[in-house]
Amino acid sequence: MPPPTIHIAEIASQTALGDTTLSIPLDRYYLSPELVPMLSDPDPTSGIRTFRTRTYVELAEGGTVLLGRDAEQNFRARLSTELVASGPRLEQVQGSLLWRLIPQRDVTHGSDLNPVMLHRLSDDESAEAVAPKRARATTSQNEAATQSTSAFTKQWGIDPRFTVREYITLGNVHYKVLTRIDARQYPGAYIQSPMHPAYDFDLLEAILRHTPDEQPRSVTRVPPDNHWEIDTRLPFEKPLTTYVREDFPEVTTVTLENIARRQFELANASPFADAAGLNALQQMIDSRNNATPSPHPQWTDPLLMLPILPTSSSSRGTARAIALPAPSATGTLDRLDFDPLRFQRHWLYFLTTYSPVDFKRFMAGLLARNGYTVMEPSSFSSFPALVFQRAGHDYVFFMSLHRTRIPKISLPSYTDPNTAGILLENQLGEAAAKVVRDAHAANKIVWLKGGSEIHPGIADTVFIIRDDNARL
Predict the structure, then answer these.
(1) For the range 58-63, what are the long-range contacts, defined as Cβ-Cβ under 8 Å and sequence gap of 24 or more?
(2) What is the pTM of this model?
């Protein structure tokens, strides 16, 4: 029986572009001049410049804009917040590396792809800037079965001659495979929209928030013939930051995004996703939803993801200190910050008392509301500290408590742990002290510092950092 014939057809546009689209001022799309030096040199054929996965062009009339494709595959100026370009139509100036607005008289229902550019651009660039018009194959029984579930209705077929080096075929339809050069071995795969470049955290988060049905889909081999089959279910039901917010309802918005970003990068072992990383993120969410031990606790509990901050020594004696990172720093998870506006009643009471016991109760309540199990604080007043854990792993946290009005924590010079004043049993009580000693012996203890930071120039915050200075 001869193999089925594959027919490739262009999808014709059915909607004419009106004057409204063409009248959008181009200056809305200009890249800030100070960012232009960060771009690569222009491609010698297309003039396209890149930064990470994004593509830019310089205009003949001056200025540099982000280049993208609209739903009909026309080149357009694009805002950085858009997945599909909505700006004015653009074209390359013949014989030049510059681009220009397409004159209104030349705008038609469709557009042709530039074959030179299709071959010269990298995978990331082609996906965003020159993705081909979607191909459709002759309907077969396998394809009908693949598309039978309404949850997967996107037609992601591609013509592999012009787009990607890695693809899989299901029911005579070719799909782009999510991958990257250093992708790890993984038995499954994910297919993706041909319109999308490599997925970093920002792109995946935007897709999950605005167009969740455009997220990558898992595909697996099904015995006995090992044919590929699409899992029509959405891998992620919510944005990654929403999962974090549900677990940590009182962290600041900056901390929320930093946690989600760090989880993404740890799971993928890169700023960009691969199949193994997306599968790990799904496993983490499943274990959370099913209240089962996490397969990757160092990627799920942000206190285990915190870096160990250095302790500095003074040249004038035995005084030591830990400098606090800026609480507003985005992109790095150096500290956890909790927003007092989310627990205002507790915060206002905390501001009225300087009792160490009240301090411990305040912090114990905050930890409990954000998913930790705290051992009963002791009534000891000096050197307040707490011991706590989180479901899903067996690590134990010891956190000493501090109030600071400067961006650092000053540490006492007299810290002999066997001194009666700071003996663990006196700080924590017998039960908690035993838990700490046992966890230390099993190498399952994490040393932290936390408390309030109140000083001019920043919003009031409750912070937690990791220092790993053993108290034993």
Answers:
(1) 58/97, 58/98, 58/99, 59/26, 59/90, 59/98, 59/99, 59/100, 59/101, 60/93, 60/96, 60/98, 60/99, 60/100, 61/100, 61/101, 63/26, 63/27, 63/30, 63/31
(2) 0.68
